[in-house]
Amino acid sequence: MIRFDAVTKTYPDGTVAVNALTLEAATGETTVLVGPSGCGKTTSLRMVNRMVEPTSGRVWLDDRDTATIAPHRLRRGIGYVIQQAGLFPHKTVLDNIATVPVLTGHTRRQARSRALELLDLVGLPADLADRYPSQLSGGQQQRVGVARALAADPPVLLMDEPFSALDPVVREQLQNEFVRLQHDLGKTIVFVTHDIDEAIKLGDKVAVLATGGTLAQAGSPAELLSRPANPFVASFLGRDRGYRALTFAQASPLPLRDEATVRLGDPLTLARDRQTDGWVLVLDDHDAPQGWLAATTLTDSQATSTVTVELLNLGGTLATAHGTLREALDAALSSPSGRGVIVHENGQLAGTVTASHVLARVESRSARLHAVVLQPSAAGTTAPKAQP
Ligand code: ADP
Question: Domain 2-248 sits in which CATH superfamily?
């Protein structure tokens, strides 16, 4: 656990970079610091490993005040990843990763074999090991940066805009890999970004900082999206807030309806007979949905042939039964029949759902989330209080 306890940093020129920050980053979780440029994110991060010293307040690592731990000892347990990876240009990929284990007393041989494991862990082929950083793409360099930070297996990782310099496609790949890796490793991570979407995607907890180094709000992504504490946070979260919040709502108790189905290769006459409102859902031999067939538009001349892929309307995304309300709603809205197709984990059809059913769930859920009761406060005035 990392805890900022009323931490302030004033630089010698009088700039207040961080102002009375109190915040906890739980063990094994990803805590994201997000906010506009200059709001004190990097300064806060660097106070954790004492690259910057607080002017007042304390930063705790578990039950120890970091001010009482010598910086070099402290940093041994803290990996650090920065934008543009910060690799040593004159060292090979393998030696970049092996540097820290060698410094902490491992033999070169041990360090190099560990480095090869880490290359694999971050999704890089072993044949990159002998290249120099300038011979890698930006995304590959960033992966090496992560491997290097993990080399000493530190319990804590500090990551300062690690993906910001990458193009959007590579950035998304690395974000997805980050989620996968963190799921397996469970490090205590403090992650800095100016990108609210990245914060929402990666953070177990998101701390929004405002200019002047003050904490505007800290909470889970779902809490932020559903209940921003003030207009600054609301505007920083941006558009589609309500829709994006559905990412954090489970779809599993949605009532699913049975569909008329046929299989690829079935006679088209069967499709015509089965349709109830013009649409038939077509499955393959493993009951995996393939697309919708507009059965009422079939001509008589087609009626003697069979259901083929060419006849299918493939529009519409699939959602999984254990997915989110956002996926279910998107599946319904993008389906030509107006019904979202829901599948099990193995790809087999579970049933379908209409947008109105999803919205009914959204409404009952949001009624619960936003229910307020008026309770007299101690001062005798009434203040709204959210129900738990
Ligand atoms: P962020 O990471 O959110 O962009 P920083 O922590 O880098 O913000 O900076 C916060 C504020 O502190 C900014 O106004 C910045 O100009 C100022 N600052 C950062 N480092 C120094 C420094 N070494 N000396 C003086 N001011 C600094």
Answer: P-loop containing nucleotide triphosphate hydrolases (3.40.50.300)
Evaluate whether 143 touches 174 at the Cβ level (below 8 Å). Answer: yes
Whole-angstrom Cα distance, residue 299 to residue 291?
Answer: 19
Give the Cα separation of 39 and 172 in Å (integer).
Answer: 25
pTM: 0.77
Q: Which of 8, 19, 43 to mutate to test the pocket of ligand 1 (most atoms within 8 A of CB)?
A: 43
In contact, 259 and 352? CB cutoff 8 Å: yes
Task: Say if residue 388's pLDDT is above 60.
Answer: no
What interhelical angle do 108-121 and 93-103 show, nearest 10? 120
Superfamily of domain 261-362: CBS-domain (3.10.580.10)
Beta bridge partners, 372, equal 386
Judged by phi (left if over 0) then psi (alpha if -120 to 50, else beta), residue 308 lies in: beta
pLDDT at 368 (0 to 100) = 65
State which ligand 1 atom lies nearest to the alpha carbon of 45: 6
Q: Answer whether 193's CB lies under 8 Å from 225's CB.
A: no
Q: Is the pLDDT of residue 64 over 60?
A: yes
Which residues lie with the beta carbon below 6 Å from any ligand 1 atom?
Answer: 11, 13, 15, 17, 35, 37-43
Question: Residue ranges per domain, the chain?
Answer: 2-248, 261-362
Protein residue with least CA distance to atom 21, ligand 1: 11
Alpha carbons within 13 angstroms on the beta-carbon side of residue 363 total: 6
Amino acid (1-letter code) at residue 199: A
Structure token pair of residue 10: 């004033």
